[in-house]
Predict the structure.
Amino acid sequence: MVKHTGLVSGNAAGETYLSTFIPENIHRQVLGSCVDVPEESPSFPLPLKKVGISGKTVWVHLVDNKGGYLPFNATILVNLAANRRGIHMSRIEQAITSLHGKEFSSLPAYGKQLGNLILQAQNARCLTLELTGHLPFIQQAPVSKLDSIDTIEVFFKLELEKNKAGETVKTGVGAGVHHLTACPCTLSYNEVLFNRFNDPWPQATHSQRSKTQLLVSPPEREQLPSYQELTGILDSVLHISQDLLKRPDETELVLQAHRYPQFAEDTVREVARAAGAKFKDTLAPETRIQVHSLSLESIHIHDVQCSLDTRLGDILTTLQAIKQE
């Protein structure tokens, strides 16, 4: 069997076709008379909240990528009523196929359209869709001024529920970056140990590569922030890693991380603070803000992780309280 890679279709020139074992008209006859097994009654009629596919790569045609295709990992789940045995997996794939080749203004625009198509095709009431992928992130090194072609992780999450009253939609977008953290605990100890309290150069401490993600879920889907805004928030409070760094650039990044050391706990709080300052006038107080940080510890075998799940209004209340102190 001839296989192809790249952007080619199944009827590409030169492909070797294999004839079917059974004539197509026979297949059509059987389809017209056989039982639709997923529509059968199950042996034990309990409703299922989430069933679907995961680990599916979807190729999205984005304007932001100058019309190019970008791969995203998709998890797509729908509810299943108690009187139905299974869902139609192929209909999920058909919905994905129907959008291939169409251009979308953003990843959320693609995700919303895909979610609606699948919910309709499955005759379901609820849908959960998650898309995860990567976008290019170009950073300039601090001293050499060279461009480093790096990557940010991006997310889109969609929850759809249809009922007699109408439709409930919850959406969220997220971005994640790698960054450098230096432990403030060892640094503080060494200041005492060596009596170097007012030294302009930071003391020795261990550092580690960390990964922090910010997810924002406004109550109105039209208010979704851009991935550029999310990355800007992360960049403003974290010492973001870069692949292309000359020695002076490396020195500056290391000194910066040691001059302003951070626990994993500090990173999630500072990202939340920056998100509050950014969105205080543009997003509703009930906007959900989630931050998750993973620190790959250098001197420990274990890793460290920290998460925060709050509302924009709570962040703004804390910001106001700090101002009044």
Summary: DSSP finds eight helices and ten strands in the chain.
